[in-house]
Write a structure and sequence with these properties.
- By secondary structure, the protein is mainly alpha-helical.
- It has one domain.
- Helices cover 76% and strands 0% of the residues.
- It contains three helices and no strands.
- The longest helix has 25 residues, at 2-26.
- It is elongated, with a radius of gyration of 13 Å.
- Keywords: Membrane, Transmembrane, Transmembrane helix.
- The chain crosses the membrane at residues 6-25, 34-51, 63-82.
- Pfam families: EMC6_arch.
């Protein structure tokens, strides 16, 4: 059960960090939006390095959930920061 919680909470935290980092990297410039997406892709790939350190084996079906949770959290946090 603990490993399933890690598969949920790590993407949420990583997505939040990716959203904040995307905000600081792009700033208010709308022409640099692809850089924010590159940050997101890098942070999704970062799960491949983070989760095995906690003993979590990532199966192919897990990547859909990990990617979606990271994307959703990244999008929400970046949008909130852009609208402040």
């Amino acid at each position: 059960m603990e490993k399933n919680l890690l598969k949920t909470f790590v993407p949420l935290i990583v997505g939040l960090v990716a959203g904040v980092l995307s905000y600081f990297v792009t700033g208010d410039l709308r022409t640099r939006d692809p850089v924010g997406i590159i940050v997101l892709v890098f942070f999704i790939y970062l799960h491949k390095l983070i989760l095995p350190k906690y003993g979590v084996e990532i199966e192919s079906k897990d990547w859909v959930g990990i990617g979606f949770l990271t994307l959703a959290t990244w999008y929400i946090s970046w949008t909130i920061l852009l609208n402040m």
